[in-house]
Amino acid sequence: MRDPPPQFIEGPKYLCPCGKGSLVYYPFGLDDPLLRSATSIWICESEFKALALCQAGLAAVAIQGAQSGGDGNVRWNAKCEGRDERVLAQGLKRLAVADKTFIICFDSDVDTNGNVLAGLHQLGVLLVGESATVEVAYLPYEKNEEKLGIDDYLAVSSPDRECRLELLQDSVRPFNVAEALDWLEERWDDMDRKQQKLELGRVAKLARLLLKRHDFKRWQREAKKRLGGIDEDEIAKLAPPAEVLTAEAAYTNFGTAKLVEHCVPVLNKRFALLRAADGTERIFSVNARREVNLLHGDAPLRQVLHDHLKALFGQIPPDKLLGDTILLWKKECTRLAVEPEPFCFEGDDRLCFKRFDWQPTQAAYPAWSEFLDRLSDRETFMAYVWSCFEPKNMGRQYLWLRGEGQDGKSVVLGVLMAVFGPAATGITNSHLKGNQFVYSAFYGKRLAVYADCKNPRFGMMEIVRNLTSGDHVLVEYKGRTPFSYPLKTKLFVASNPKPEISSQNSDRSRMLYIEIAESRRKDDPTWRSRLMGELPGFLWMCRNVYQSLCSHHGDLPLTDTTRTLQEERAASFEQKFQDFFDENFVVAQGAKLTASIVSKRARAEHLSDNELSDFKQWMERTHGINYRRTNSERYYENLAEGRNELPLPPEAFPQVLRGPVR
User: Fold this and answer.
1) Which keywords appear in this protein's UniProt record, sorted alphabetically (predicted)?
2) d(CA 512, CA 517)
3) Across all residues in the chain, what is the average pLDDT?
4) Backbone angles phi, psi at 149, to 5 degrees
5) Does residue 3 surpass a pLDDT of 60?
């Protein structure tokens, strides 16, 4: 019986006692004379539609919906035993099926609803299997209109009802697609183009479901030959593959309740959503180790849903269903309160980009010792290495490791990158060009390595300050909304050339400059693997050194050796500025020197624009000379031109007497 009004959200329209299977409704009982004597019986959905047909003088029965033409009990028992068995509903079998013609007349949405089309196909196949003659009647239906049932179609005055009955009976065509093509050919020339496409689409969809692939191709060619103005490609567009036609059938009534039941838990298990305070959203994939990876679109979510639903229901889910599920999941899921950590050690259950499943343990580390013995400051190196693994460390320093080459620094830094895995990244020249996407490469990264730096001035670039300062930067991925994020990256720079650095405190305070001597052994293929194997012991010692040097978790204190090396690099870098200044200028309190004079002298000495900018800062820092700019002039305060030595007179040079050449 019908459940009026529906008591369930998106629940069933029909209820019947458990174990009764799919019931069939006979308007006046199974012994109705009209039903017993009729050679043609109409099958429709629901009792109201069957009553409307009986009032019009037609023999009719009703099933409980488009998918209820089969015996539900037999189907269920077969599925429990791992079999695929379908039989006609017992209520239809009682009608002496083999002696009659059955006209299937479902609602008008059979043209657009894959669930209804699949039900029509299944019922027709089951009736044919019982040796019945099967025909199909289609109700008129316009796109974007409400669906129409046969009871609505016949709910008009008597003269109009007779006309509509005549039109309805004229629309009846064979269920067999070969016979349906004959039916279509007879009426083809009397139809306009719109009607031709509609009727051909109806027949072609059934042909796609009923025929095997190669048989459908043959049917396509036959239809093209017999129907004018149509080609095979157009037929294929009217009838998508069977997988697509039946996909919608399995998911037509897949409402919110089923999305919550079947889909949202799958996404909750595999993904996490962060909605930041600025309104931006970030979706992360989550693996079994609770490691995350930032996603740049919903394609991975769609693929997971597609695979899950296809395995569960045996049909390809519609794309719209996947999109609706993702929107619902974003509303229903438990959102992250904070950004995932760059890394976590064993025992820490927080989401992170990299999880270490080991702990530092006391052990020997001879391979690392060979490397450490060649460093100018081994303790600073070890303490800085552990600062990468110490989440409390808020230091702003980076480590510059310089050697002449073939000294193992690239191998060591490569091992550290391998340990951090997805929480580490490398730097190349492309990162130095300053495009707006540069900081997206460092999102969620704890370690950054510039393995072969050719730019000695790299330490004075803005990107170094932004990576190591812990300040917020704007992270932007192509095609995505930018968001603010504090970078807390530990930076290693390896180079062959010596770095150039100014004496400015902001530059010197960030750098830990360490030099490495050449390795005596350069052909040990096992060195990298030994470094990896000794990591727990090496890091155990690094942690001890760090705790002794940096218990406050800030910047590492400079040793005398490292400070001396940095001062030498700063003095070397600024010596050319001192020489240039001494040759051309003097400090003169209250004096003003036009900026163009300084620029001309700098060009004569082949100073670049960057070097001239550094020279300005150097003069301000060391001599109190300030650059000023107004609307009318540019000048330097407290600066004057130096006195150039006068050229010596000719008599100051020894005279060389030349005699006549003989």
Assistant:
1) ATP-binding, Nucleotide-binding
2) 17
3) 86
4) -100, 165
5) no
For 145, 156, 262, 551, 616, the CA distances from 312, given in Å and listed in that order, are 33, 45, 9, 55, 71
Give the pair of three-digit tokens for residue 18. Answer: 């458990």
CA distance 513 to 498: 10
Whether residue 618 contacts residue 460, with contact meaning beta carbons closer than 8 Å, is answered with no
Q: Is the backbone of residue 19 left (phi > 0), alpha (psi -120 to 50) or beta?
A: left
Q: How far is CA 488 from the centre of its chain?
A: 24
Indicate the SS3 state at residue 163.
helix
> Tokens at residue 81, please?
């035993």
Residue with tokens 């279509």: 184
- The label of the residue with tokens 């480590």 reads 399
Interstrand relation of 40-45 and 511-515 (parallel, antiparallel or unpaired): unpaired
Both structure tokens of 60: 């009719």
CA-atom Rg of the chain in angstroms = 42
Q: How confident is the model at residue 9 (pLDDT cuts 50, 70, 90)?
A: very low
- 355 sits in which H/E element: strand 352-356
Residue 273 contacts residue 330 (beta carbons within 8 Å):
yes
Domains and CATH numbers, the chain: 24-175 (3.40.1360.10), 254-338 (no CATH), 356-558 (3.40.50.300), 569-641 (1.10.10)
Reduced to 3 states (helix: H, G, I; strand: E, B; else coil), residue 2 is: strand
Return d(Cα 527, Cα 412) in angstroms, integer.
Answer: 10
d(CA 514, CA 516): 7
Task: Inform me whether the pLDDT recorded for 504 exceeds 90.
Answer: no
Contact 376, 562 (CB under 8 A): yes
- Please, are residues 524 and 366 in contact by the beta-carbon 8 Å criterion? no
Quick check: 10 pLDDT over 50? Answer: no
CB atoms within 10 A of CB 361: 10
What pLDDT does residue 645 have? 47
Residues 625-637 have a mean pLDDT of 89
Residue type, 239: A
From the CB of residue 349, how many other CB atoms can be counted at a distance below 10 Å? 8
Q: List beta partners, residue 110.
A: none
Structure-block tokens of residue 589? 């309190």
Q: Please check the confidence at residue 658 and state whether its pLDDT lies above 90.
A: no
Nearest Cα neighbor of 537 from 366, 399, 375 is: 366
Distance CA 400, CA 406 (A): 16
- 581-608: average pLDDT: 88
Band of pLDDT at residue 4, cut at 50, 70 and 90: low
| Tokens found for residue 373 | 């013995």
Strand order in the sheet with 292-294: 271-275, 281-286, 292-294
Distance CA 120, CA 175 (A): 10
Tokens, residue 212 = 């095997």
Give, as one character, the DSSP assignment of residue 23: -
Q: How far apart are the C-alpha atoms of 312 and 332, rounded to whole Å?
A: 22
Query: What is the rounded CA–CA span in Å between residue 380 and residue 546?
Result: 8
Q: Retrieve residue 313's tokens.
A: 């229901």
pLDDT digits (tens, 9 = 90+) for 128-158: 999 999 999 998 765 556 778 898 888 876 6
For residue 177, the tally of other CB atoms under 10 A from its CB is: 21
The strand pair at 398-402 and 447-453 is best described as unpaired
**324: part of which helix (H) or strand (E)?**
helix 319-332
